[in-house]
Amino acid sequence: MVPLLVLIVALLIPNGVLSIPSTVPAFLWSSHYNLVSDNGLKESVNYQVISPKDLAKSVLSEAGWSNFLCKGKKFQDPLDLALLFVGGELQSSDLSLNKHANSALSDLLKDSFVRSNTSMAFPYVAASEDVNLEDSLVSGFAEACGDDLGIGNVAFLGSCSMGNGNQEETAASHSVQGYLTKRMEKSHKGKTDLVVFCTGQHQASKNVDRTQSEGEILSELISSVEESGAKYAVLYVSDISRSIQYPSYRDLQRFLAESATGNGSTNFTGCDGVCQIKSSLLEGLLVGLVLLIILISGLCCMMGIDTPTRFEAPQDS
Predict the structure, then answer these.
(1) What does the pLDDT read at residue 19?
(2) How many domains does the chain have?
(3) Tally of CB atoms within 10 A around 84
């Protein structure tokens, strides 16, 4: 009876009810300041499942970025640069499954996490395909700081988009080096600039080397910043909507539709109300058929029990 109950539950429960929401990791580190807040410690890990908005608040409060991105009481000199890197090659499950993770990227994140003066990890950030991650984080910084927002400048590089406005995608090292050169010319003293760099397949550009992995791109960015002599902090966040290994439902649906069109089939239709009714009837018919088979089998077993019609009288001893 147990396999039957499992089958019935699998048929009756709608798709997606038992699915677990996808989560992505985030890492933060810096060797140019020491975290002296009461809640933050070196190599600390927040195991809670948090949203991108909560991640922005935790980065400001627990990781001490409020001392650089917000005005007010500052316990040390501000950083020159806060680098937000939005990738798409890691999910939370990849941290324990090394065969699925990018080794160069995971090694870089682990080494940076251990060797830096201040480092934090957020292994479970709730992923969303409907919300622009970089937009959500930057707006979260602004909401958390409020009127005390003290960012000198915000630059979106790579394939980032802000407010549904796409920007031209350029190579990682060239874009950051160009920005650092302009920053030195303008000299934003006393303020920290926020640089957001995104990878992914949102745009196709001839200036970008698609053979580079995220680990190589992030390593180039950090090398460019270090060569400039700027004091910086890095926040790496993975975005499931930019992932090639784990494509979104919309991308998969579009791929299947385009494949059908390319093969000459133009009769691609979705499941409308009549289709859903028929599918429900077929599911009910299948469950009813299984129950009927069980009932008939039970009746046959009961009918097969043959009892004697008479019993012999006991013999006197």
Answers:
(1) 37
(2) 1
(3) 25
Q: Is residue 312 part of a domain?
A: no
Distance (Å, whole) CA 288 – CA 265: 36
Q: What is the pTM of this model?
A: 0.66
Chain position carrying tokens 């649906």: 253
Find out whether 234 and 120 touch, Cβ atoms under 8 Å. no
Examine residue 279 and state whether it is found in any structural domain, yes or no.
no
Give the H or E element holding residue 119.
strand 118-126
- CA 179 from centroid of its chain's CA atoms: 28
Report whether 94 contacts 87 (CB < 8 A): no
Residues β-bridged to residue 32: none
Rounded (10°) CA dihedral 150, 153, 156, 162: 60
Q: Which of 168, 176, 172 is nearest to 195 (CA)?
A: 176
DSSP designation for 180: H
Distance (Å, whole) CA 42 – CA 166: 37
Q: What is the pLDDT of residues 94-125, one digit of tens each?
A: 777 655 556 788 889 989 998 888 899 999 99
The Cα 42–Cα 20 span in angstroms is 31
